[in-house]
Write a structure and sequence with these properties.
By secondary structure, the protein is α+β, with helices and mostly antiparallel strands. It contains 2 helices and 4 strands. A 4-stranded antiparallel β-sheet has the order 1-2-4-3. The mean pLDDT is about 85.
Amino acid sequence: MSVISKEMINEFNNLMEQSGSSIRLIPNHSSVDIKLVKDRYLNMEDQIINPTTDFYDLLIQFFKNEKVDIYFNNTGSCFWTESVSEIE
């Protein structure tokens, strides 16, 4: 059974930070939200982001390397694994 761990999320977020991206993964019970880093000049309540295909390719490949298949909602704003469970 493949699950998403907090360590995986932290590792991916570190990759995003090192590349200068403001996109981060945020655990949300049994799924993971794709959000922007909190910024004092942005209204974080109403954020709508549209990541590029390159971002999704990187995200999918990262989790594939971890032996985790991920599935997205219809807007691509969050994802989960086939075996739904709390993020460990």
